[in-house]
Structure formats: C-alpha cells, structure tokens
Design a protein that fits this description.
mainly alpha; two-stranded antiparallel ribbon; 2 strands; 3% strand; flat
Length: 134
C-alpha cells in the first residue's frame, strides 16, 4: 500500500471493481474520496481503498447497500472514538455499536457457511456429471 493519493483507475485495479461501480458507491455515499486533484478529480487514499474492499466483500454475501452503510457507519464511529476526549462516545451507545458490528460478523459467518454448503453441492453435482461421461 501507499500513502500517495490514487486516481480512480488505480483504485479500480487494486479493488478489482469497475469504475462505474466505484462511482455508484460514491453517489450512494458509501465511499467519499478523501482528496481531489488540482483539476478537481477525486483522489483516494489507502483508507478509501480499504472501505471499498469492505463493500466488495459484503456484496457476495448478500448484504444490501443499506446494511453495508449501517456497518460502515458503526465501524467509522467506533474508529473515531477516542477515550477521555470531548467527542468520546457514551458507553451505552458504544455498546450498541459494538453489538451491531458483532451481529454483522455473525451474519457473515452464517452466510459463508451457507455458501460452503452450496459449493459442496455444486462440486458433488459436477463430479456426478463427470462420472457419467464416457
């Protein structure tokens, strides 16, 4: 990774997301480029790329954009929480956010298990078809 801001093409290459998809995520507010070039073009940081990777990983597990937004907001709030500062989160609210993130972790684990089951069945099917070939 680099600390230098990246243009969208490099971000697309790193995340393996199409430019159009990245722009859609921008339009929906899921990711906001951290900087812009002198010409006004969006520039992305490593943190922006990491955020896009979270989104990319959630999509095949069937999470909606609203669910993705909710998780990212919770993670952002927790990451910004600095103990003993004026902006420190209320402990009860912090507990709610931690619980929310844990719920997403459990849901992701369940969905991965479901996908493993589907993959196993698909492999069995492919094997059965190969067995029928001369």
């Amino acid at each position: 990774m680099t600390d230098d801001p990246m243009q969208i093409g490099e971000v697309a290459a790193r995340t393996e997301l199409p430019l159009r998809t990245i722009r859609q995520y921008e339009d929906s507010g899921l990711v906001v480029p951290s900087a812009s070039s002198e010409g006004g073009f969006p520039l992305y940081t490593d943190a922006d790329v990491a955020r896009l990777m979270v989104i990319r990983r959630m999509k095949p597990l069937g999470f909606t954009l609203d669910e993705t937004r909710e998780l990212l907001n919770a993670v952002d709030r927790l990451a910004a929480d600095v103990p003993d500062t004026p902006g420190e989160l209320d402990p009860a609210y912090r507990a709610v956010l931690v619980s929310r993130v844990r719920a997403y972790e459990r849901a992701a684990t369940e969905r991965v298990a479901e996908l493993r089951t589907q993959l196993s069945r698909a492999e069995e099917f492919a094997t059965s078809l190969r067995a029928r070939l001369p």
